[in-house]
Design brief:
The chain is α/β, with parallel strands linked by helices and 337 residues long. It has 11 helices and 13 strands. The chain folds into 2 domains: 174 residues, Peroxisomal Thiolase, Chain A, domain 1, CATH 3.40.47.10; 151 residues, Thiolase/Chalcone synthase (Peroxisomal Thiolase, Chain A, domain 1, 3-Layer(aba) Sandwich), CATH 3.40.47.10. The strands form 4 sheets. The chain has a 5-stranded mixed sheet with strand order 1-7-6-4-5, sandwiched between helices. A 4-stranded mixed sheet has the order 8-13-12-11, with helices on both faces. Strands 2-3 form a two-stranded antiparallel sheet. The relative contact order is 0.19.
Length: 337
Amino acid sequence: MIPVRIKSTGVYAPGLPIGNQELKNLAKIDFDTAKTESKIGIVQRHIAHLRGINETTADFATKAGVEAIANAGLAASDIGLFIVATDTPEYISPSTAIVVQGRIQKGEVWGGAFDINAACASFSIAFDTASRILANNSLIRFALVIGVYNMPAFFRPGDAFGYSIFADGAGAFVLERVEGTESSSGYIGGQQLTDGTQWNYIGIYSGAARKPITHQMLDSGEYGLQNLQPLPGDRNVRLWPMVVEKLLNGHSVKLEEVDHFVFTQINHSVIVKVMEVLKQPMTKTTCVMDRYGYTGSGCLPMAFHHAVSEGRVKRGNKVVFVASGAGLAVGSNLFIY
């Protein structure tokens, strides 16, 4: 087991929550409210620009990170590594993590800061990366890993699909390298799955090297979040049990030994089906899409924060994360909280 534990967590979502009916009015869209609530599980969400709040990705990440640092009882100067996990960065360059480090630590320090972008699997992969860096670098004791999502900043006007599903939010972990036997908590391992032939399903395809923004592109509406072709409807129901099985088998852990599962918070009915396939009760998972909508790279740490703060996960519990995102990218983590 890697001697790295989650010391604390933090969350942030901008403004008052927006219910489905209010969303229709604010965004001037229409969508199937009954399906959104009963199947997908989304009842409300937070979207900064619809509340007139002048905040974007780096603001969300900074506020979640500051909360996590405070909950850890640390000073900003204690953090030796910043990783921001997102596919909705503040800028293409510099990295959002650099911006967040500057806001939190106020200047030049001996430490690192970088982003990880694997769509909605970003946080899982960042968690794995940070744990391995901490375990192998004695100069760093604490890392701040933040999953953040600001997909609404990339919606085109009238995008009913985007507005009804995606939302703003961030979740943060302070990770700590622990010495010897001082803690029973630790990071066991991770597993990734990738299929780059699926790059052209959904994403933000404009604004970078291949398709720089032009007046023609703006006029034709070929910018922002684009859904180029339908995603396979059963993809996560097929993938997630397979990912869990491989992850657990790789570390000689039995399914019944896992105390809690946290999945990408994209669809409540999918999580129900996956737990049925795994033959595990819904009491062993946490869903937060009802209160936050889908917050992509931020949803795993946000859900875990609530699982801990609401008493569903306790110290010593064995936990599995599974996250999948466009690309296709899938990440998973096994750890003892």
